[in-house]
Structures are given as structure tokens and as C-alpha cells.
Amino acid sequence: MPKFLVRGGPLRTALRELAATVEPPVVLLGHSLGGIIALDTLIEAPLPGVRLLVTVGSQAPFLYETGALPHLDHPEPLPGHVPAWLNIHDRRDLLGFAAAPVFPGRAEDLATDNRQPFPAAHSAYWSDPAVYRAIAERLP
């Protein structure tokens, strides 16, 4: 089990403090474990300046469904204070999961095809121009 799931308090605190120093609107973007940290921090309590969450290759939907997301028990819905959420995943990335079916009406999925086998697919998002376009189109 990742240490974040057991001892994530300092990471959530650091993220909160950092977000508080940035002029709104703030976009939180997290890849893999970073997406879990960002989502869990937003679930725990509102971050007033954050207008968009972007997760890329994230296991957060899977952790939620298995009861392992620290601040949200399945089947509780996302708190209303969680901002708009763009979740980017690739079908070849065995560590990236769709969020829209798990959080209907709260998460928007972008399925990409980076044409890379696993495990390379988990990092290939950053070579896909469609990923950058999708993020840019949603920036507040």
C-alpha cells in the first residue's frame, strides 16, 4: 500500500499551503499518485482558489471503488466543493482508470490512445498533443 494512503497528512498539508499562495484561479494537475493526492486533498476540505482538477493516469477511481481512498468511503458521492474534474486515461495504461462512470456527472473522462504498451503507456500521456489541447481548452 502506498505510504500516502497511510500517512498522507503532510502531503495534503503541503498541497493546501502551496495552493493558498497562488493567485486564483488554480488548476491542480496530478499524474498517477499525484492525482490521488490532489483528489483526496480536495475531498478532505475545500480549496477555495482551485477551479479545476486534472488527473492523468490516476488510480483514484479504483481506490474509491475498493474503499481505499482515504477521505471518501464508497458509495458516498464526491462532496459538492470538489471543482470541475478532467480525468485523462489510456486503455493501455493499466494504472489509469476512467472516473466518469464511477463519479457520474462529476468527472469528465478523456480517453487517449498513446499507442504505447504498458508500462510505457503510463508515462506516454506527455507526448500526446491531444492531452495538452484538452487541458488548455478547460483552463479557467
From TrEMBL:
Q: Which residues form the AB hydrolase-1 domain?
A: 14-130
SUPFAM superfamilies from the xrefs? alpha/beta-Hydrolases
Classify the source by domain of life. Bacteria
State the Gene Ontology terms under molecular function.
catalytic activity
One short Pfam family name for this protein?
A: Abhydrolase_6
Q: Extract the coiled-coil ranges from the record.
A: none
- The molecule here is called AB hydrolase-1 domain-containing protein
Species? Streptomyces filamentosus NRRL 15998
